[in-house]
Automatic annotation (TrEMBL):
Principal EC category: oxidoreductase
Quaternary structure and partners: Homodimer.
Pfam families in alphabetical order: Iso_dh
GO molecular function: 3-isopropylmalate dehydrogenase activity; magnesium ion binding; NAD binding
Occurrences of domain Isopropylmalate dehydrogenase-like (ranges): 2-347
Top-level division of the source organism's lineage: Archaea
Alphabetical keyword list: Amino-acid biosynthesis, Branched-chain amino acid biosynthesis, Leucine biosynthesis, Magnesium, Manganese, Metal-binding, NAD, Oxidoreductase
Name of the protein this chain belongs to: 3-isopropylmalate dehydrogenase
Family annotation (SUPFAM superfamilies): Isocitrate/Isopropylmalate dehydrogenase-like
Cofactor list: Mn(2+); Mg(2+)
Keyword Oxidoreductase: yes
EC numbers for this chain: 1.1.1.85
Record GO biological process: L-leucine biosynthetic process
Length: 351
């Protein structure tokens, strides 16, 4: 099966190289039938006109799964390359209707959490479901600035969008082992329904959907309270569902509790297509130095394989990655001095 691979900018090509080596090894040693088709798409190639948005969307529609590296280059902020890259990222999510952004917050074995009381691999393990097709982000294509005096962005919350994301969250909760604390399966609806009507509507629809899932506890929390909860009692969490912008912010917070952005991976999923990518950006400050942590890219690959029905192979990736980390191989962001290539080689050796 062909999979579209977007190499991106900055550390993108370096960490994607790690993911591809792992896919190829799974193919050679274990017969995984995945063929990565690489596309040199990022702010740089958008800036020089090699690619444009429609062309990319046409290509993307040929695939069931996309593996995407981070895009963006601060040097191209003035020429427009980075803005075009953001358009591409958001258009892939909006136009392909990848409505569920699934962001696991999981403390991997061998990784240290800054939360001292939760420093064991099983104590932080929950998933943030970020609504990916509407909310405040949809205003990216239609915000308004009036006479340099006033700016307006609109938040869109629809019944259809909220129903499907709520359903997605409950279906996911069904498949999990529940919260690390007591194994209870729950979905928390996170909003600011006390302040905005659109959020009160979001909460109402979520509540309607929840009545169809008796076996899963439905909970409600304001976004500010959730930010605190994720630090004080992360072990009580199982699945969180929230609007686009809150999901963006809370998932960076969650990432910090499990070792940093290098460990935050994600999937953008529709009913028939998926795009998998690290949560972090192109990290221009460390690009080209072979020191980026490829874990989020590798875990995104694992998530993609699992979603495609190759769960056996994603287990091989995770076991060998965890073994490498447990044996003490650490990139600089983890406090070590391993290069990206050495880190990758250690995983390959463990496979
Ligand atoms: P974006 O606007 O694309 O989200 P950002 O401004 O949030 O980008 P990132 O590129 O995510 O920034 O980087 C934030 C910080 O985290 C940087 O200091 C970067 O070097 C570091 N960082 C991000 N990803 C990694 C990684 N995989 N390995 C090591 N450090 C990383
Ligand atoms: Mg960011």
């Amino acid at each position: 099966m062909d999979v579209m691979v977007l190499n991106g900018d900055g550390i993108g090509p370096e960490i994607m190289n790690a993911a591809i080596k792992i896919i190829n090894k799974l193919h050679e040693n274990f017969g995984l039938n995945i063929n990565p088709v690489e596309y040199d798409i990022g702010a740089v190639t958008l800036d020089n006109g090699k690619w444009d948005l429609d062309h990319i969307l046409d290509e993307a529609r040929k695939y069931k799964a996309i593996l995407k590296a981070p895009m963006g280059d601060p040097k191209l902020r003035n020429t427009g390359g980075t803005e075009k890259a953001l358009d591409v990222i958001l258009s892939l999510r909006f136009d392909l209707d990848l409505y569920a952004n699934v962001r696991p917050v999981r403390l991997l074995p061998g990784v240290e959490s800054p939360l001292k009381s939760y420093n064991n691999p099983d104590s932080i393990n929950y998933t943030i479901i970020r609504e990916n097709s509407e909310g405040l982000y949809s205003s990216h294509f239609g915000g308004l600035v009036l006479r340099d005096e006033l700016a307006i962005d609109n938040q869109t919350i629809t019944r259809k969008g909220t129903e499907r994301i709520s359903r997605f969250a409950f279906e996911l909760a069904k498949k999990t082992k529940g919260s690390p604390k007591d194994g209870k399966k729950s979905v928390v609806c996170v909003d600011k329904s006390n302040v905005l009507r659109s959020f009160a509507f979001f909460r109402k629809i979520f509540s309607e959907v929840s009545s169809r899932y008796d076996e899963i506890v439905a909970k409600y929390m304001y976004a500010d309270a959730m930010a605190q909860h994720m630090i004080i009692r992360p072990d009580e969490l199982n699945v969180i569902v929230t609007e686009n912008m809150f999901g963006d912010v809370l998932s960076d917070l969650g990432a910090a509790t499990v070792g940093g952005l290098g460990f935050a991976y994600s999937g953008n999923i529709s009913d028939n297509m998926g795009m998998f990518e690290p949560v972090h950006g192109s990290a221009p400050d460390i690009a080209g130095r072979n020191i980026a942590n490829p874990t989020a890219m590798i875990m995104s690959t694992s998530m993609m394989l699992d979603w495609l029905g190759f769960g056996k192979f994603s287990k091989i990736i995770e076991d060998s990655l965890f073994n490498a980390i447990r044996s003490g191989v650490r990139t600089p962001d983890m406090g070590g001095n391993a290069t990206t290539s050495y880190f990758t080689e250690s995983i390959l050796k463990n496979m």
